[in-house]
Write a structure and sequence with these properties.
Blueprint lengths: L1 H7 L2 H15 E4 L3 E7 L2 E6 L2 E4 L5 E7 L3 E11 L5 E12 L2 H6 L4 H19 L2 H6 L1 H16 L4 E12 L2 H43 L3 H13 L21 H12 L1
Antiparallel strand pairs: 1-4, 2-3, 2-5, 6-7, 7-8
């Protein structure tokens, strides 16, 4: 038995080498990945997804993800076009659309894209005024995205979106902007109040015109208003009324006056 094992022992290393060779020749590539293959230093191309066979030792492989990558751009200190010092940060979303170019045309495409995003953010923010940074971020986002997308296209990268997250300005300037906003709100409130008073005055004038067109209309309206004025107990209101308008008084008031005179 020992002689059989000893006689077959020379095949064990060969079997181990074959197993290692076969296992290294088989690559499993996920659906969202591509395998860029170099054979003897020459680019063969991207392979996958699924089961991919390569030649060990001869082939060198680089695995590239095709999923969207989120890049958090660090805060950049910039001076705007109107000479205001601000701090701006952003987030960039991009993905690899051509694995061959991402490997062959640039070294470390992730680092290159990150550096380009920082310089582009500083450049675009420095060319804008503070009001644009605060109120027109969508336009600046599109501008940064266009610049990055054009610059990274030779690398096989597609920039899908850029979002400016925070714009930090000096505290003194924040207070000034707050005061300006408060003044603007007060101005709008005054305008709205004035427009309301103008409309109300027009309605009052229209009502007065209608009342004056009727005989005693003004006094009738006034008599209807008197109970509201004298709603509290103990109030006595003396109001002169022309004798020719006596017929406009309610009959109950006239009868009450006659009964008092008879007493």
């Amino acid at each position: 038995m020992f002689e059989l094992i000893a006689s077959g022992g020379i095949y064990v290393p060969i079997i181990i080498v074959i197993i290692i060779f076969v296992s290294s020749a088989i690559k499993i590539v996920r659906e969202y990945e591509r395998l860029v293959v170099f054979r003897l230093g020459r680019l063969i191309g991207g392979k996958g997804p699924g089961l991919v066979f390569v030649i060990p030792v001869v082939d060198r492989t680089i695995r590239i993800s095709l999923r969207i990558i989120t890049l958090d751009v660090p805060t950049q200190e910039v001076i705007t076009r109107d000479n205001v010092t601000t701090s701006v940060n952003a987030v960039v979303y991009y993905r690899v659309i051509d694995p061959n170019r991402a490997v062959n045309n640039v070294e470390e495409y992730r680092m290159a894209t990150a550096q380009l995003a920082q310089t582009t953010l500083r450049s675009v923010a420095g060319q804008a005024e503070l009001d644009e940074l605060l109120a027109e971020r969508d336009k600046l986002n599109q501008k940064i995205q266009g610049i990055l997308d054009e610059a990274t296209d030779p690398w096989g990268i597609k920039v899908t979106a850029v979002e400016i997250k925070d714009v930090v300005i000096p505290e003194a300037l924040q207070k000034a902007i707050s005061r300006q906003a408060t003044a603007e709100r007060e101005r709008r409130a005054v305008i709205v109040q004035a427009e309301g008073e103008k409309a109300a005055a027009g309605k009052i004038a229209e009502a007065a015109k209608i009342l004056n067109a009727e005989e005693g209309g003004f006094y009738v309206r006034l008599l209807r208003t008197l109970p509201e004025i004298a709603s509290q107990q103990g109030n006595i209101i003396a109001f002169p009324l022309p004798i020719e308008l006596k017929h406009l008084l309610p009959q109950s008031i006239v009868n009450s006056k006659k009964s008092k005179e008879e007493e």
